Amino acid sequence: MANAAEHSGANGHAGVIGGGGRLGAARLLLWVLAGALAVRQAAAVLRVPPGEWLSGFHLPGLPGSLYDAGQFTGTPFAGLVLKPLTGFAAPSLEVAWTCVTLLFVAAIGLVAARGLPDPVPRRTALLAAPVLTALMMVSLPVREAASPGQTAVLPVLLVLLAVFRVPADRPAGFLIGLAAALQPALLLFAPLLWLAGRRPTARTAAATFAGATALSWAALPGDSWTYWVEHLAGAGLGGAPDSLANQSVHGALLRLGLTGPAEIALYVALAAGIAWIALRRAARYARDGQLLLAVALTGCAAVAVSPAGWRHQLLWVLLAVAGKVGKRAADRPVWPVAVILALTLPSAVLLPNLAALAPVRDNVLLLAALAAACAVPFLPRSSPYWREPVPTAYGRPAAARWARVPLLPFWRRVLSRPNLLLELLLIRVGYSLYSHIRAAAPTSRTLAEGNGSQIHGIEKALGIDIEHAVNHAVVKTPWLEAFFNFYYTSFHFVVPLTILAVLYWRRPGDYRWARASLGLATVLALAGFWLYPLAPPRLMPGLGFIDTVHGPQDLANPSYGAMTAISNQYAAMPSLHFGWSLWCGVVIVMLAPKAWQKLLGALHPLITVCAIVATANHWVLDAVGGAVVVSAGFGLVYVLSGPRGAVASGTGTAAPGAAGLAVPGPRGAADDGASAGVAAGARGRR
């Protein structure tokens, strides 16, 4: 590991303090965003009443024991440092603690950004610090670390300062030793320093940790015994060791039902293996000049192997985005996006609520840390793909369809297949956010029933109020009722996902076009759910509709039973049941190669509209609304990116069988390879 001062001075981007033009403006706006997020986080913490906030320290008065209440999770050394703070007035301590914690977060962003390995593009050097700071402000670790008594941010800052900003070995080792005294697992940095050639720093770190621990034993012998012996380095303090907050290997094994000596033996073996693999990888990346990545991997491993690795200690995972993964430019966003999603969104958003996925869903942060420390194949700086990954093949952009609506840069026609993992992540998160927003839409029964009466009246005036007759006719025909019930509940998700999967594999260019139109239509539908809550026919009192899918509904009960807890029952206008089926029909009719496939595609929306009316789940005008938003989705894609499969005339060379898309003219060997790959893939699909 290079000397901190040498590394800092060698970084060409370390001296960048500002930028002109657009980069300078973007940098300023990003810092403003980071500041706004910090203020929001501070406001969330400071809303806690001062008395309750002070009790959140879980620290008794000066004469008491640290661990009597079993809630304080810090080391005896941390308690020795924090205990005198309880003598301050609660409001002043609350404000000071919150502000200092958030300032530490900003300092981490600044130091980490200057620790990026050379060469660093000027744009990255200017924007890395505010972007990283903003991401940390919304991350789960920082949101929890801002709570009273949590010191997880300070050890991260101490380690980063020791590695990147402190020139001498002994002061750097002293800072790392203090960090380990606050969070013992961080002593793992001592062997990293030793393997990387900074042995005086490693010795100083170990000696500082030993001295701080001995001081706490001398001052607080009873508490030290409780922490180190009775609770095995804090495991069990502040909560059960098997709680979801304990994102360590030990906690995961306990959640899987393993207990006793067998669990301890397995935990020790796994921890030793993880530490060994992570340290070897970190030392290799440190020698390669990727110091920030080496620090992040060691921090991830330290939390994973700790007996109690709390969520607020996993800020190291976010620092691991400094590593580059993948040879193709299209693959580079996968690792950063996965890390950001894992550290900013609840696990329930990332994964569906299925029992089979519970072990993964309960350990998302731990798995992210283990992946970074032991598995993710980060590129070395010597790789030919480090600076110049295989470029993405783009078609020449089509001209704007409307003169006043310019095409956006990210709507460029991509010819290659998108990264599957990234697509699955974004689709899952997008659908989960859609479900949450739909569930949060207004649910006023009076308003929804009033809008239902309005829709019913319009249909009467137009002579299309056929819902009641169709509903009762189907109920009198049991086999038809069973068919429509099955169709309504089974094909809504299966058919769109199947079409997307087929397009992804066989026609990636059309996949992007179809996916974008479906996403835009769904976003427009969310606006309809918010602006016009509507009671479906089955929830309209006095009209005599029969709910064939969900069974009889007690309309005197505003909750209408368990279905209301699952989804917003008044999110009916527009009907996405019909809208998504119409999207499926249009895509199949346009792209299917055979007539019988086109016929099935055309029948799907027709059967769906019959099903939603027959089961009393939608009005006829709901289907009209669904058709409107889907048409708008297709229209927006047409306006922004031009007609499907068309590109502007130019020097591009057509790829056989690529649906009219063009590959850019050669700019070098990499582009030739990309173009050849697209052409070969197109020939293989014919």
From TrEMBL:
<feature type="transmembrane region" description="Helical">
    <location>
        <begin position="148"/>
        <end position="166"/>
    </location>
</feature>
<keyword id="KW-0808">Transferase</keyword>
<feature type="transmembrane region" description="Helical">
    <location>
        <begin position="570"/>
        <end position="592"/>
    </location>
</feature>
<keyword id="KW-1003">Cell membrane</keyword>
<dbReference type="GO" id="GO:0016758">
    <property type="term" value="F:hexosyltransferase activity"/>
</dbReference>
<dbReference type="GO" id="GO:0005886">
    <property type="term" value="C:plasma membrane"/>
</dbReference>
<feature type="transmembrane region" description="Helical">
    <location>
        <begin position="599"/>
        <end position="617"/>
    </location>
</feature>
<feature type="transmembrane region" description="Helical">
    <location>
        <begin position="291"/>
        <end position="310"/>
    </location>
</feature>
<comment type="similarity">
    <text>Belongs to the glycosyltransferase 87 family.</text>
</comment>
<dbReference type="Pfam" id="PF09594">
    <property type="entry name" value="GT87"/>
</dbReference>
<feature type="transmembrane region" description="Helical">
    <location>
        <begin position="95"/>
        <end position="113"/>
    </location>
</feature>
<feature type="transmembrane region" description="Helical">
    <location>
        <begin position="517"/>
        <end position="535"/>
    </location>
</feature>
<dbReference type="Pfam" id="PF14378">
    <property type="entry name" value="PAP2_3"/>
</dbReference>
<keyword id="KW-0812">Transmembrane</keyword>
<feature type="domain" description="Inositolphosphotransferase Aur1/Ipt1">
    <location>
        <begin position="454"/>
        <end position="635"/>
    </location>
</feature>
<protein>
    <submittedName>
        <fullName>DUF2029 domain-containing protein</fullName>
    </submittedName>
</protein>
<keyword id="KW-0472">Membrane</keyword>
<feature type="transmembrane region" description="Helical">
    <location>
        <begin position="364"/>
        <end position="380"/>
    </location>
</feature>
<feature type="region of interest" description="Disordered">
    <location>
        <begin position="666"/>
        <end position="686"/>
    </location>
</feature>
<keyword id="KW-1133">Transmembrane helix</keyword>
<feature type="transmembrane region" description="Helical">
    <location>
        <begin position="486"/>
        <end position="505"/>
    </location>
</feature>
<feature type="transmembrane region" description="Helical">
    <location>
        <begin position="623"/>
        <end position="640"/>
    </location>
</feature>
<dbReference type="InterPro" id="IPR026841">
    <property type="entry name" value="Aur1/Ipt1"/>
</dbReference>
<feature type="transmembrane region" description="Helical">
    <location>
        <begin position="125"/>
        <end position="142"/>
    </location>
</feature>
<feature type="transmembrane region" description="Helical">
    <location>
        <begin position="334"/>
        <end position="357"/>
    </location>
</feature>
<dbReference type="InterPro" id="IPR052185">
    <property type="entry name" value="IPC_Synthase-Related"/>
</dbReference>
<feature type="transmembrane region" description="Helical">
    <location>
        <begin position="264"/>
        <end position="279"/>
    </location>
</feature>
<dbReference type="InterPro" id="IPR018584">
    <property type="entry name" value="GT87"/>
</dbReference>
<feature type="transmembrane region" description="Helical">
    <location>
        <begin position="173"/>
        <end position="194"/>
    </location>
</feature>
